[in-house]
UniProtKB/TrEMBL annotation:
GO terms for molecular function: L-amino acid transmembrane transporter activity. This is Amino acid permease/ SLC12A domain-containing protein. GO terms for cellular component: membrane. It is found in: Membrane. Pfam families: AA_permease_2. It is a multi-pass membrane protein. The keyword Zinc-finger does not apply. It comes from Rhizopus stolonifer. InterPro entries: AA/rel_permease1, AminoAcid_Transporter. Keywords: Membrane, Transmembrane, Transmembrane helix. PANTHER family: AMINO ACID TRANSPORTER, METHIONINE TRANSPORTER (EUROFUNG). The chain crosses the membrane at residues 41-63, 75-93.
Amino acid sequence: MPDPDNEQLEPMLRHDDFVEQIEHMEPLAVGDQRLERKIGWIQGAMVNVSYIIGAGIFVGPALTLQLVGSGGMNLIIWLIGALVALSGTYTFMELGTMLPRSGGEVGYLEYCYRKPKYLLAYLFTYWSLMNRSSGVASQGIVFGGYINYALFGSTYKSNWAERGWAC
């Protein structure tokens, strides 16, 4: 196979023009046009709270009321759920103060279950990826149900349309 001529390689080898163009370019954002990174403690906490609460707070009360049939019993069930969530919060607070390492749940599992090495941490990470992605999918389906309700009214019910909006 013949070697290419230097004339063919010259445009690829010369980059002086490109360097000159970059040196003389105006910056894309000048002065006050730059976006400022302003996320304080309150904004960061609200992002975390919105991630934790999710779409369940909008769907759950009606579903539990339909299943139990009583407003008082519905409140009792929600209070029990709040106590369970609070106990989980206190558990993670205790783990965080006992084992101040990075990694969250995976770090705690690595510390507690050392043999076989990383097995439980790996399984938890796999489960966590599957669980969180299914949570995002279910939130999309809930969103699709609300879009269907807003566009077509309460009588229209189509699981395929809800899934379509979720995509």
